[in-house]
Amino acid sequence: MTRALSTRATQPLRPGEREGGHGRNLALLWAGQFVNTAGLMMLVPIMPFYLEQIGTTGLAETQTWAGVAIAAPALALTVATPLWGRLGDRIGRKWMVVRALLGLAVAMVVMATATTPLLLVAGRLLQGTLGGVVEAAAAFAGSTGSDEKRGRSLGKSFSATAAGALAGPIAGGLFVGSGGLQHLMLVIAGAAAVLAVTCAVGLSEPGRSAARSAESTSQRRRRPSVRGVPGAAALAAAAIAAYFGVYGLIPVYAEHVEGVVTEDGGASVWVGVLHSVMWGATLLGSFWWGKHNDLTGRPLRTFALSAAGCAVSIAVVALPLDPFAMIPLRLVQGFCFAALAQSLFLHFSRHAPADHKSGFVSTANSYLLIGQSAGPLVAGPLVGLMPAPGAVFVMAGACALGLLLALKPVAEEKHSLAAHPGAGNVVRS
């Protein structure tokens, strides 16, 4: 079966099919990522309420299970993503998108039928292990399309993540009170299954046979390592630090806003509003940063600038500001956050051999996932050790550390472009 899939994936596209095929690819990837992120994020803000519905009692038990359930998909993805990426390089990235959508459908059914917190966590772990639609789609987008527009492709791809993160919590909040959340999960499972079939038929992956035939047998035996990517080690640490700060802010932010807003029920409303504001800015920023990376050819500089923007906007939020004053800060944070992952993926994709782009992008994503899972796990206990504004400053410091760690690779990128003008848009084969 592997051989058959590999053979199909390597069939080259006809010249007249490329433009239409690329547009269809982006549309299908966008839909898949939107459904995946909406299904993943719809539970995050309301996780404590849903856990109480299926059996947790007491604040400590509910918060403990909530922290584990929120972090579970990222923890599983950290391990699974590089493995799926390597398999995608072998049998075709298209089939990793299909596999991820089918995995999402199975996980959503498990979560919809969960009657205990343990079963819910099992479903979330399954979502991370078998799913990873965003990661598979990013690997596909980062390895297809023209070299000059690869940044735009990644930007459009990540806009779906922002849209799903914006719509998911709104839908979850509407359905959790009426007891219809399980039905919504089953609807998402059905949509994922339909999209999986559609992607199996509709996604067009450029042929890779020419690239493979150009490699010698000894070259194929020596699997390229991401350590060969310029600045790989420093960028790995920078990615972990930046995502630690951004995602570590999530459990801290509600506590901080509650200390600022004194009206009954006002804090929860403002948390929802500010959450939507941030992801709305991320949605718009995804397109802008993608074009910016293609025009400048310097994704690492973009990463550093966006990490700095996140650090500053998070640090100022720690001040005792009126919620209205937090809106522009959340807009800045969301806009800057939109650049982090896509810029990292673009850099790793550009320095990956043609037949190993999926593995390189997946490995880069695993760095982000480490920070994404570690941030919330550490932030919860941190709030118990210090006031909420202090914990917010810690998260801002993590983003600032990401900036500092990226400075050397940024300088190397600048020198490389000065020595080889136009190299920013060249992808190695």
UniProtKB/TrEMBL annotation:
<keyword id="KW-0472">Membrane</keyword>
<feature type="transmembrane region" description="Helical">
    <location>
        <begin position="63"/>
        <end position="84"/>
    </location>
</feature>
<feature type="transmembrane region" description="Helical">
    <location>
        <begin position="302"/>
        <end position="321"/>
    </location>
</feature>
<dbReference type="InterPro" id="IPR001958">
    <property type="entry name" value="Tet-R_TetA/multi-R_MdtG-like"/>
</dbReference>
<dbReference type="Pfam" id="PF07690">
    <property type="entry name" value="MFS_1"/>
</dbReference>
<keyword id="KW-1003">Cell membrane</keyword>
<feature type="transmembrane region" description="Helical">
    <location>
        <begin position="385"/>
        <end position="407"/>
    </location>
</feature>
<feature type="transmembrane region" description="Helical">
    <location>
        <begin position="229"/>
        <end position="250"/>
    </location>
</feature>
<dbReference type="InterPro" id="IPR036259">
    <property type="entry name" value="MFS_trans_sf"/>
</dbReference>
<feature type="compositionally biased region" description="Polar residues">
    <location>
        <begin position="1"/>
        <end position="10"/>
    </location>
</feature>
<feature type="transmembrane region" description="Helical">
    <location>
        <begin position="96"/>
        <end position="119"/>
    </location>
</feature>
<dbReference type="GO" id="GO:0022857">
    <property type="term" value="F:transmembrane transporter activity"/>
</dbReference>
<feature type="domain" description="Major facilitator superfamily (MFS) profile">
    <location>
        <begin position="25"/>
        <end position="414"/>
    </location>
</feature>
<keyword id="KW-1133">Transmembrane helix</keyword>
<keyword id="KW-0812">Transmembrane</keyword>
<protein>
    <submittedName>
        <fullName>MFS transporter</fullName>
    </submittedName>
</protein>
<feature type="transmembrane region" description="Helical">
    <location>
        <begin position="183"/>
        <end position="203"/>
    </location>
</feature>
<dbReference type="InterPro" id="IPR020846">
    <property type="entry name" value="MFS_dom"/>
</dbReference>
<feature type="transmembrane region" description="Helical">
    <location>
        <begin position="27"/>
        <end position="51"/>
    </location>
</feature>
<feature type="transmembrane region" description="Helical">
    <location>
        <begin position="270"/>
        <end position="290"/>
    </location>
</feature>
<feature type="region of interest" description="Disordered">
    <location>
        <begin position="1"/>
        <end position="20"/>
    </location>
</feature>
<dbReference type="InterPro" id="IPR011701">
    <property type="entry name" value="MFS"/>
</dbReference>
<dbReference type="GO" id="GO:0005886">
    <property type="term" value="C:plasma membrane"/>
</dbReference>
<keyword id="KW-0813">Transport</keyword>
